[in-house]
Amino acid sequence: GGGRGSRGFEGTGNWGAIRVIERMTGRAFQPEYVVYIIIAVNCLVFLLWQNVRLRRFMHKHFTLSLRGIVVDYRFHTLFTHFWSHNSEGHLLANMLTLWFFGTECVAMLGVARFFQLYLAAGIFSGFCQIAWPSVASALPIPAKYRMWAYDLNLGASGAINAIVAYNILTFPSRIILVWFLFPVPSAFLGTLFLAKDLHGLYTGQSHIGNAAHIGGTFVGLAAWLALKRRSVWY
């Protein structure tokens, strides 16, 4: 464990922002701090949602939709939407998952790679979510997605799914206590969630961002394969 952590920390010294934080705090920047920073930013954006006067602004700039991209040219929402939650349950579930899987993942990847993976997955998963209805319309599946152009999407699930996927692929036989009660191998749990998202895409009856989840999982898989191929950790 210690060896992975020391390797994962390599490269963080090249980040000017990290050096500034170290000077301000007088302490070495630990890899897991980036997870806490991401959680803090998500909580801050959640607080902005609670201000009624900001609701129109938040809907306009912190949610993602196909119409918002192709008609209103709000390309920045491909980035801002995955820092955005407007319900306590959504925020809590995502941030707990990020904390559980992210702190170990950043120790393996290092701050720079971890943050790059998180950002890439957030953007790609958002693109998948707004592009999927167009793809689905050409496939022989029940999903119709009649109102897809106006659907508003937000949440960090796609970005977090990349972190979860990377962790599960690295430790597939690890036992995870579901609801702190039921021991389940991580690979089996990941397969169940993937099957659930695929079913949601097929039926089109889910109000969850299934395409975003799968897009994030794909980015996590791609990162794991790329780093394994380079034998980074071996």
TrEMBL record:
Keywords from the named record: Hydrolase, Membrane, Transmembrane, Transmembrane helix
Annotated InterPro entries: Peptidase_S54_rhomboid_dom, Rhomboid-like_sf, Rhomboid_protease_S54
Pfam families associated with the record: Rhomboid (PF01694)
Residue spans crossing the bilayer: 33-52, 117-135, 147-169, 176-195, 207-227
Bilayer topology term: Multi-pass membrane protein
Major site of localization recorded for this protein: membrane
Keyword Aminoacyl-tRNA synthetase part of the UniProt annotation: no
Gene Ontology cellular-component annotations: membrane
Family of this protein: Belongs to the peptidase S54 family.
UniProt-recorded name of the protein: Peptidase S54 rhomboid domain-containing protein
Annotated source species: Hemiselmis andersenii (Cryptophyte alga)
